[in-house]
Structures are given as C-alpha cells and as structure tokens.
Amino acid sequence: MLKMRARLLLVGLLSAGILLPLSAANADQIGSASWYALRSITASGERMNPNALTAAHRSLPFGTKVRVKNLRNGRSVVVRINDRGPFVGGRIIDVSKAAASQLGMISSGTAKVSVTRLN
Fold first, then answer.
1. What's the rounded Cα separation, in Å, for the pair 41 and 73?
2. How much is the pLDDT for 73?
3. Whole-model pTM?
4. Measured by CB atoms within 10 angstroms of the end CB, which terminus of the chain is less buried, N or C?
5. DSSP secondary structure code for residue 45 in this structure
6. Terminal-residue alpha carbon distance, the chain
C-alpha cells in the first residue's frame, strides 16, 4: 500500500511539472511564431510600434522580457511583452516587424521558435 501511494505521488508530481504554465515554470516554450505590424493600441495601452522590439503573448505579464530564438537559423532577439495574442491556433508568440526582421522571418511570415523568459 505504501509503495502504491509513493508511485501515485510521483506520478502526480511529474504531471504537475508538465502542466505548469510558462510563467510559473520559467522554462522554454517551443512553437510557432508570427509577426505583425499594426498601428493600433495594444492590450497594455501602448500604441503598437512595428519598429520596437515587442511581442504579444497569451499569459506573460506586460513588461516581461523574453528571448525568442528562431530554431531554423539560430538567430535570436530579446523582446518586451506589451500585447496579448496570438489568436491563431498553434502559435505561441507574435513579434513586431522589427523583431521578425532580426529573427530572419519576414518573408516566411512564421518560424519555429523557442521562447525563454528573462525576468
């Protein structure tokens, strides 16, 4: 009985580690990124500036800095989260046009990336 409880506890702890959100686990997130260059107001209240190194993320707090790395070419950029999104399934982050340029993904529109929280 004790061994069974220990196994259940271990499975529970492992499951919790897998299900933690990025903001709690502070771990890499890997998925698809896209870019946008609107001239509207972001969810944080700032005017969207396509020339700034900013990004939209679904859950990270505004002001959080993350390193976005293009896994196809190895290029990376540090961006500040100032908007919400992306609103397309399968994508984990939307970066500004300036950030997309540094990542080398302007022409492709999307790229497979890793996102690492820095602060």
1. 31
2. 97
3. 0.76
4. N
5. S
6. 44
Query: Which are the contacts of 107, defined by CB distance < 8 A and separation ≥ 6?
Result: none
Report pLDDT for 38.
87
Whole-number Å distance between alpha carbons of 44 and 92:
18
- Where are the extended beta strands (E) located within the chain? 29-36, 54-56, 65-70, 76-83, 91-96, 110-117
Paired sense of beta strands 110-117 and 29-36, if any: antiparallel
Spatial separation of the C-alpha atoms in residues 18 and 23, rounded to whole Å: 13
Q: Distance between CA atoms of 31 and 91, rounded to whole angstroms?
A: 6
CATH topology assigned to domain 23-117: Barwin-like endoglucanases (2.40.40)
